[in-house]
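Journal club prep, shared notes

We agreed each person brings one worked example of a sequence with its structure written out as tokens. Mine is unspecific monooxygenase. I'm keeping it raw so we can talk through how to read the token line rather than staring at a rendered picture. Sequence first:
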Amino acid sequence: MLLQCIAKGIVFSNGKTWKEIRRFSLMTLRNFGMGKRSIEDRVQEEARCLVEELRKTNASPCDPTFILGCAPCNVICSIIFHNRFDYKDQTFLNIMKRFNENIRIASSPWIQICNTFPVLIDYFPGSHNKVIKNNANLKDYILEKTKEHQASLDMNNPRDFIDCFLIKMEQEKHNQELEFTVENLLATISDLFGAGTETTSTTLRYGLLLLLKHPEVTAKVQEEIDHVIGRHRSPCIQDRSRMPYTDAVVHEIQRYIDLIPTNLPHAVTHDIKFRNYVIPKGTTILTSLTSVLHDDKQFPNPEVFDPGHFLDESGNFKKTEYFMPFSAGKRICAGEGLARMELFLFLTTILQNFTLKSLVDPKDIDTTPNVNGLASVPPPYQLCFIPV
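Then the structure, token by token:
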């Protein structure tokens, strides 16, 4: 398949490479104390910057796509490169442009056809070449930043993910089965960008559209924000446990939009019998997350947006093993913790500071995906952010 052209990093690698790089990445993200700042500090800072950018719209109608894309991208930049970018920085805009382009192309009918019949790629010029070029440009930039880090590296004081990886490379340089290489660093950072930028921004964008469609839900979330957080301090991740309705809304947004309907491609590691079919070792398989997220036994009326799907009779948050927007098993999304933190903090910070105003009657808002290939992309829309 086209998307499996990379055998390094986390997403499309396997075996020892996958195990080592994933373990290192999870540990680095989990123990993130670089520069005495936690990941939550970085997300909160970006949430405040996001609010300031939204204020600049002066309550005028705007398409939120670009601004909502900047925030999660900047969190990843802060983790990887130590610094966030100004939203008008040209380098930052180029990174954003390439990711937006790639997700649009990857969800197009042409790419879906190529994924089904890979032989076509060799015979027809197509937009997949643009994806390859965009990835190459991004890796050139990452390589440039890596060289800068190598020149100023302090082994005892890592500043960011690149520093941590370079230190690990030095520690492992005598290992004959070397997994920590520059090539794996470039691929891993590309994976972190790809998995941690467009997915979160699309979920945020789709989430705001659903909140416009259901103002009664928005009002209840803002009531809970007023009660638990108030108007004068930044939301923190500890607030989530005391905000069951808001937590349920975030979960229901993810369930309802079914962001990655068929998951990423996987391969079976040995011959296996499944429902009377024998699947040979090495066979590429696609798993339907839709069938779980829209299971009508677990979620009555699954096609209806209803935060009650995640609340019990007493209004407490209700966990379910059917909640799988990040996939499941050993290859569950490595950035799940970061994504869940971002979705909660960004949405609560926006709703703490603004009233969302639709340009059309809520009942006329269409929430049908505009594109539904690799990812479910919401239709374009505008709204007004009215300061509270």
